[in-house]
Design brief:
The protein is an alpha/beta fold and about 425 residues long. The chain folds into two domains: about 15-65 and about 375-415, Urease, subunit C, domain 1 (Roll), CATH 2.30.40; about 70-340, TIM Barrel (Alpha-Beta Barrel). Helices cover about 30% and strands about 20% of the residues. It has helices at about 80-85, 90-105, 120-125, 180-190, 220-230, 240-250, 265-270, 280-290, 300, 305-310, 310-320, 340-345, 350-360, 360-365; strands at about 15-20, 30-35, 40-45, 55-60, 65, 70-75, 110-115, 135-140, 140-145, 170-175, 195-200, 235-240, 255-260, 275-280, 385, 405-410, 415. The strands form four sheets. Strands 1, 2, 3, 4, 5, 15, 16 and 17 form an eight-stranded mixed β-sheet that branches. Strand 13, helix 7 (about 265-270) and strand 14 (about 275-280) form a beta-alpha-beta unit. Helix 4 (about 180-190) runs parallel beside helix 5. The longest helix is centred in the first third of the chain and has 17 residues, at about 90-105. The radius of gyration is 21 Å and the shape is globular. About 55% of the residues are buried.
């Protein structure tokens, strides 16, 4: 994973009497001591740690967690009308993205994976401290075929298909044919993409592709996977229907986004092939409630229930099949503050510690950053949050725009700190 340097410094901190929750167990690990130095966790112990140089923070009655990870965001989606968003000036998109990024961090998300739109410039601006926000993992522009989920031209729009390819506000680019997709993957990798995103099914927000639309040929999908593999990375795919998911898994796609209409047999096949899923249920609830208000077109609103109503059932199906699920939200524009409500939605059908694990240990595995983020262990980056209470007992403690978080630490530096009062 490509690292971007940051000059921001941090002080040594010793957390005492912490109840640690990282999703690995249904109960907290109690009475833990954690020492943070130089942006890293250097020691974790059940007994006292001697660190006279460190600031001591007593967490009695509070929960220490790894910084949260959202594996499906669009930080450049400043409006639900993604076609209009793609036509806005890059400078305006960057300006509008800054409060979206800051909001994510203040909700406790210290790392997010952008699955379409953000470029290396936005990523580097965050890493260097110009923008306040989570660490960004990016795919650059998502790949879409003509008329697929990212072609926002509409039925009567005859503009050239590359009109929005390099605009910051565009979520994706259009490419058709084996050689075209091969070149597109290579270009995105060259531009800094850390994985590749492909639109392999119809979608809600785009105008001309029904949900069950199969995007790209099998040969095109296999070529995309081959080129990503050559670059030592993986492919993520936008998917809803069982048929689309199955053909993507067989083509070698690793990260399966959404998966609302998956069957047990396909989920089992995906698990056997080592794939991982990233459901995003909160976005359908908010699109249903607020999408039209925030610019979603009527033809898109009409498609929401095709996938929304199957969401909770898909979680149970994937769990029973043994398919790992990472945390994702996929919210657009003004709906992005609802990000943390995904925890509460999933907790309707999944055990609380599994929901938390989706945003910690499982998410880190999907990002290929195990041991670096999503855990509280020696050597890991000191991305940490302190929760006022136990989220295993009340998942709502992770909602409310971070109001229940008394500390948010990113690479050892406190970006929010109520504990020093």
């Amino acid at each position: 994973m490509t690292e971007l340097s940051s000059s921001r410094s941090s002080q040594a901190v010793l957390f005492r009497n912490a109840d640690v929750v990282d999703g690995s167990s249904s109960e907290p690990r109690t009475g833990v001591q954690v020492l943070v130095e130089n942006g890293r966790i250097v020691q974790v112990a059940d007994e006292s740690i001697d660190a006279p140089h460190a600031r001591v923070v007593d967490l009695q009655g509070r929960t220490l967690m790894p910084g949260l990870i959202d594996c499906h965001v669009h930080v450049i989606a400043t409006t639900a009308d993604l076609g209009a968003n793609a036509l806005l000036p890059d400078s305006l998109i960057a300006a509008r993205a800054t409060p979206l990024l800051k909001g994510m961090l203040m909700r406790g998300f210290t790392t997010v994976r952008d699955v379409g739109g953000a470029d290396r410039g936005i990523q580097q601006a965050v890493a260097e401290g110009h923008f306040v926000g989570p660490q960004l993992v990016i795919c650059g522009k998502a790949l879409s075929q003509t008329g697929g989920h990212n072609d926002y031209r509409g039925f009567y729009d005859e503009r050239d298909d590359q009109y929005q390819t390099r605009r910051l506000g565009s979520m994706g680019r259009i490419c058709d044919g084996v050689e075209s997709v091969r070149r597109a993957v290579r270009q995105e990798i060259k531009a800094g993409a850390q994985f590749i995103k492909v639109m392999a099914n119809g979608g809600v927000s785009s105008p001309s592709d029904p949900i069950d639309f199969l995007s790209f040929s099998v040969a095109e999908l296999e070529t995309i996977v081959e080129e990503a593999s050559n670059a030592q990375t993986y492919v993520s795919a936008h998917l809803y229907t069982d048929e689309a998911i199955r053909r993507a898994v067989k083509a070698g796609v690793h990260s399966l986004e959404h998966c609302n209409l998956i069957t047990f047999e396909t989920a089992q096949l995906a698990a056997e092939r080592g794939a991982m899923a990233c459901p995003t249920l909160v976005t359908y609830e908010r699109l249903k409630a607020e999408g039209a208000e925030y610019g979603l077109k009527p033809e898109s609103v009409a498609k929401i229930d095709d996938v929304r109503l199957a969401g909770l059932e898909s979680l149970q199906t994937m769990r029973e099949a043994g398919l790992p699920m990472a945390f994702g939200t996929d919210l657009l524009g003004e709906m992005q503050p609802h990000q943390s409500e995904e925890f509460v939605i999933r907790a309707q059908v999944l055990p609380p510690h599994e929901v938390i694990r989706s945003a910690t240990l499982t998410a880190a595995k999907l990002l290929r950053m195990e041991g670096e983020i999503g855990c509280i262990a020696p050597g890991a980056r000191a991305d940490l949050i302190v929760v006022d209470g136990n989220p295993l007992e009340d998942m709502r403690l992770l909602t409310g725009q971070g109001e229940h978080l008394s500390l948010i630490m990113q690479s050892g530096r406190a970006v929010k700190d109520r504990l020093s009062r």
